[in-house]
Amino acid sequence: MGLFIDDLRYAVRSCAKRPGFTAVILLTLGLGIGSSVAIFSVANAVLFRPLPYEDPEELVLVWNRLPATNVSRSLVSGPDFLDYRNETTLFEGFAGAFALQGTITGDGPAEEIMAAWTSENIFEILGVAPMLGRDFTLEDAAPIDFDDFTNPNATLAPGAVILTYGFWQRRFGSDPSVVGRTIQLDGLGSVVVGILPEDFHIYLPADAGMPTNIDAWRVIPSNFAENARDAAWLTVVTRLKDGVPIERAQEEMDALAQRLREQYQHHANTNMQIVLNGMHQDVVNHARPVLLSLLAVVGFVLLIACSNVANLLLVRAASRGREIAVRAALGGGKGQIIRQMLTESGVLATGGALLGLLLAWWGVRLLAALGPDNLPRLEEVAIDGPVLLFTLVAAVASALIFGVVPALKAASPNLANALKERGSDSGGVRGNKVRTVLVVSEVALSLVLLIGAGLMVRSFAELRNVDPGFDPENVLTFSTPLSFFTYSDRDQRADFMNQLSDRIAALPGVQAVGGVTPLPLGGGDQYSVSSYGLETATEEEWLSNKADYKAVLPGYFEAMGIRLIAGRTIERADNEAEALNVAVIDRKLADKVWPGGDPLGKELVAERFSTEEFGLVREPMRIVGVVENVRGESLAFEGRETLYVPFRFSPWLSATMTVRATAGTLAGLLPLARREVAALDPEIPVSAVRFMDSYVDDAMAQTRFLLTLIGIFSGMALLLASLGLYGVISYSVRQRTREIGVRITFGAHDSDIIRLILKQGLTLGAMGVLVGLVVAFFGTRIATSLLVGVSTTDPITFLGVPIVLLIVTAIASYIPARRAIRIDPVEALTTE
After folding, report:
1. Mean pLDDT by 10 residues, the chain (832 residues)
2. Using omega within 30 degrees of 0 as the cis cutoff, is the peptide bond preceding 518 cis?
3. Which of the four, 306, 314, 585, 687, has the lowest number of CB atoms within 10 Å?
């Protein structure tokens, strides 16, 4: 212990004697370790930390896969859900839920909320207990008469509702007396029976079919399973019994799926399969490629930083050759010298780690601000115990990576040369093999990162050039959710939206008014995909044809700037009571159903939700127009074919108004729109207010997030590699002072000396580029899912980045070369 304390004191004094040298190393390590810690803190919160539920490893999400319809993740119907509950033995229970926009009135202004309807056991399955009040019970799920459910004159008993902590705090000011109070949700009385804990959040995959920003939880009536088998609307979670592996549970569900296919024609036609996915794995699956890519990137940055520090320590060891040789001559063994050098490396690594933690603390906040909305659990990112342990491991690993080679080299000095203060290295590429390998590695790693950044730049450019199919400029959007219970008749709902459109169209500066459900790029597509087909279509053909159904108000296409190709768009008369069923289709659907033909006037059978039958019914639609394709789900993919129907045909989801106005009047339009909504019904809130171009901007959020971070880290890598290259060439010039002096004495010109030094630097750069190209050619293939419209071997990137890197290499070599031509030959020849 005493020897270690002595070594530690000596190491601290040694670092303090060279403050500039020490500061450079600490900053280099701080950047490398800080980058790694910041990204690891995000990966830890998202990928590695268990979900905040009781025994989260037992939680499983249940999906239906329908190979015959090319649907890999389908929701579950009510009857299927009951079969899962009643015909399996390896599960603690199944809970199903769905979520829709709703409205709360009373206790303040009307407000749009996100309300989830769930089976009574959802919180029991998750292992979550209300903070105040009680959980749902079987009595809360009492069956109801569906005729009463859709009858505005019926008297329904108040249902039970559990509020989330954030909504309780925002709406009711954290008043505990709200428990037991009856509140109005969607025009229906609901008794607040509980408040969920502050840290509770429902986590689901991005494409789960259910929003997760829930404000209130309500109970599905127990007779909900009377719906049809083909009406899939439930997101299902289950808990495995203790000790049951998911593979065994999957076997049981496979057997159940086989029985259902044999028993029900719909399941046979779709070749329905039941798929179990671990809940945590499912939630983070879409974020995994992004975060693993970023972890690899910061790992490269840390390796480059360590290589740079190792180079600096090798130079320093060479300058300390006499000191180390004296210690060896006085009896200092190799072990003692190596221990001392590694202690100094440990001190530097500790200082770099502390600086890295400070930078990571700032970086975590930057990541939270830059992170896309679909990155789960970003709010939980923090510098916690696992992150501190990772920092310790990173510091120790860094100390070993950059400390071992200099320590071993320092422990094997040439005593004669060292005591005469003469270096043993020749200074050329061959004489500095270790430093050459380190610099080549830095250049190679930098090239890989720069190629990754180049691919992201190209991908982002491609994404920005994508035509979404509409013009997002100068379009205001907002939601006006109509209560299902207050507005239970579809003609009544359509009439309200028609009147609202008329009022907004009369406002100053308004050029066009429309509405749609759901909004392109706005999410909410999970309940709008359905089957379609010709009257003569077989059941198999019907099931295999899937389209996005969009219910639109007259003026929607004009407000959004969607190009009309043939026929006409939806008109006011199409949205009136007793109107004929008409539809507008996009070019993709027209080409699929009537390739090379004219779809106008033809009929297509579509589905709509019927409140009379409380299920889906099929009705023929006459095609009156064809419009350009719109990218509704993502800018990266063209998506499914789209069928547009009048709002009256399918009015049950909340419509988003789309208002195109002149740029000068757009900003002041919202208060006027609120006034018009209140004039029609003061109980209807105006919410989700955004400009359409912000949705387009959000659609590029993940690519922009990756581009920003990879760009920052690649810039750091390029800077570190350039400094490393500069350091090696500068040291080489100092060691070759006599050689350069001789060359100048014998008539070498400045250009000869510059060419000599540039050749050395470019040789190192070219070696690194060749190694880096090989690594990048194979390494970038893992990023295929992150790129849009760009190959992982994009020739522009693979040609452009090496050229840029070689230019930087030439600049880093030219600076020492300029210094070399100023060497005084007489002084150089007398230098020992």
Report:
1. 65 77 86 91 90 94 86 86 93 92 83 91 95 93 68 69 95 93 87 95 84 91 75 90 95 95 88 94 87 89 87 69 55 64 83 91 84 79 89 89 71 51 42 74 88 88 88 93 81 92 94 92 73 84 84 95 95 85 94 92 87 76 95 82 92 89 87 93 90 90 84 86 80 75 78 85 90 88 79 90 90 84 68 53
2. yes
3. 687
Question: What does the buried/exposed string (b/e) look like for 780-814 if buried means 16 or more CB atoms within 10 Å of the residue's CB?
Answer: beebeebbbebebebeebbeebbeebbebbeebbb
The string over 404-418, giving b where at least 16 C-beta atoms fall within 10 Å of a residue's C-beta and e elsewhere, is ebbbbbbbebeeeeb
Can you read off the two tokens belonging to residue 370? 């830059």
For residues 567 and 584, the answer to whether their CB atoms sit within 8 Å is yes
Contacts of 548 by beta carbon, 8 Å cutoff, 6+ apart = 525, 528, 529, 632, 633, 639, 640, 641, 642, 643
Q: How many residues does the chain have?
A: 832
Contact in structure between 96 and 217 (CB atoms under 8 Å) = no
Dist. CA 492–CA 646, nearest whole Å: 14
Cα dihedral across residues 748, 752, 756, 757: positive or negative: positive
In 3D space, the residue among 646, 688, 740, 708 whose CA is nearest the CA of residue 101 turns out to be: 688
3-state secondary structure of 278: strand
CA triple 661-664-668, angle to 5 deg: 75
Separation CA 211–CA 524 (nearest Å): 8
State the pLDDT at residue 416. Answer: 47
Give the 3-state secondary structure percentages of the chain, helix then strand then coil, rounded to 5: 55, 20, 30
Residues 722 and 812: beta-carbon distance below 8 Å: yes
Rounded distance, CA 322 to CA 314, Å?
14
Q: Are 469 and 657 in contact (CB under 8 A)?
A: no
Nearest to 451 by CA among 204, 699, 711: 711
Taking the C-alpha atoms of residue 482 and residue 505, their distance in angstroms, rounded to an integer, is 20
Say how far apart CA 517 and CA 657 lie, in whole Å: 9
At residue 458's C-alpha, the angle toward residues 457 and 463, to 5°, is 95
Asked whether 677 and 420 are in contact (CB, 8 A), the reply is no
Q: Map residue 70 onto helix, strand or coil.
A: coil
Q: What's the one-letter identity of residue 38?
A: A
Question: Residue 555 and residue 573: Cα distance in Å, rounded?
Answer: 12
Residue type, 641: E
- Return the H-helix or E-strand segment holding 643: strand 641-646
Give the SS3 label for residue 180. Answer: coil
**Contact between 473 and 755 (Cβ < 8 Å):** no
Residue type, 599: P
The DSSP output letter for 649 is G
Q: What does the alpha-carbon distance between residue 21 and residue 424 come to, in Å, rounded to a whole number?
A: 22
Residue 670 identity: L
Q: Model-level pTM greater than 0.85? A: no
Tell how strand 529-533 and strand 564-567 pair up. Answer: unpaired
DSSP 8-state class, residue 482:
P
- Residues in Cβ contact with 87 at an 8 Å cutoff, skipping those fewer than 6 apart: 256, 259
Q: Residue 466 has what DSSP assignment?
A: -
Round the CA-based radius of gyration of the chain to a whole number and report it.
34
Contact 725, 807 (CB under 8 A): no
Q: 93-113 burial, b if ≥16 CB within 10 A, otherwise e?
A: bbbbbbbbbbbbbeeeebbbb
The string of DSSP codes covering 430-455 is TTTHHHHHHHHHHHHHHHHHHHHHHH
**Per-residue confidence (pLDDT) for residue 13, from 0 to 100:** 76
- Mapping DSSP to helix (H, G, I), strand (E, B) and coil, where does residue 385 land? helix
In sign, the C-alpha dihedral spanning 675, 681, 685, 688 is negative
Rounded to an integer, what distance in angstroms lies between the CA atom of residue 625 and that of residue 587?
10
- How far apart, in whole angstroms, are the C-alpha atoms of residue 575 and residue 570? 8
Q: What are phi and psi of 688, to 5 degrees?
A: 50, 45
